[in-house]
Design goal:
By secondary structure, the chain is an alpha+beta fold. It contains five helices and twelve strands. Strand 6 and strand 7 form a beta hairpin. Helix 4 packs antiparallel against helix 5. The N and C termini lie far apart (53 Å). The model has no long low-confidence stretch (mean pLDDT 95).
Length: 231
């Protein structure tokens, strides 16, 4: 049984209940079998921090009743998946309006709206286009086959997992955690000094450590400069 702030790695295959269509997975072979393989995606177990609300509400709720090594099917109703369909989110726009935005619409195409958000094109006819602003899976019951493949219990492992979240696999970030766990100090590699969003990544990493791992700790980042830095 899992509780808030537990670090859980899961593998899953998710599908639409009514049709059996597989829509997402963390497993490369399953993606290839379902013809949804994306060569740009890294297929690996997903980190879920219980209580963080980064995954579907129904999936996170179900995970609380899992244990490490468990594999189960989880049925998630629309209200706890991608929401119920809202007829008011279907609207009619002119073909010219979309073309002025550089969009040549075709049925089932997903487009980014100028005012923000996404829409699915339902039909194109007579200079008119019907857009559906509902999520493509709104109103659908989703089935997840989920396996808990790993649970992190050590604070250093949890911090390392968060580093990978914000700096990617194979990153060069190193840290020291004091024995009393009151201080976490990172040495920022010089390769990262000019990374455009470095400050944001450091902020989010520190926030996650304090929120989910060590709420009483002081998180600091050290950047050391010398003549070698500028060669």
């Amino acid at each position: 049984m899992f509780k808030d702030n537990d670090f859980v790695y899961i593998d899953y295959v998710s599908k639409i209940k009514d049709t059996g269509e597989i829509i997402d997975t963390t497993i490369e072979e399953e993606a290839k079998k379902a013809n949804i393989y994306d060569p740009d995606k890294k297929y690996k177990p997903l980190l879920v921090i219980i209580g963080e609300h980064r995954v579907l509400e129904g999936l996170e709720e179900a995970l609380r009743d899992f244990n490490e090594g468990d594999q189960k099917d989880v049925e998630i109703p629309p209200s706890k998946a991608y929401g119920e369909r809202d007829p008011s989110k279907v609207k009619l726009v002119s073909l010219g309006e979309l073309k002025r935005q550089g969009v040549t619409p075709r049925p089932n195409m997903v487009i980014r709206l100028a005012e923000g958000g996404y829409a699915t094109i339902k039909s194109v006819s007579g200079g008119r286009v019907i857009l559906d602003l509902n999520h493509p899976y709104a109103g659908k019951t989703i089935i997840y086959n989920v396996k808990v493949v790993k649970v992190l219990k050590d604070d250093k492992e949890k911090i390392q997992a968060l580093i990978e979240r914000w700096f990617g696999e194979g990153n060069k970030m190193t840290f020291e955690l004091t024995e009393d766990k009151k201080s976490v100090k990172f040495d920022v590699p010089k390769d990262y000094f000019l990374v455009e969003d470095l400050q944001t990544r450091k902020y989010m990493l520190a926030k996650d450590i304090i929120t989910f791992v060590l709420p009483e700790s002081l998180v600091s980042f050290v950047e050391n400069y010398n003549k070698e830095t500028f060669k």
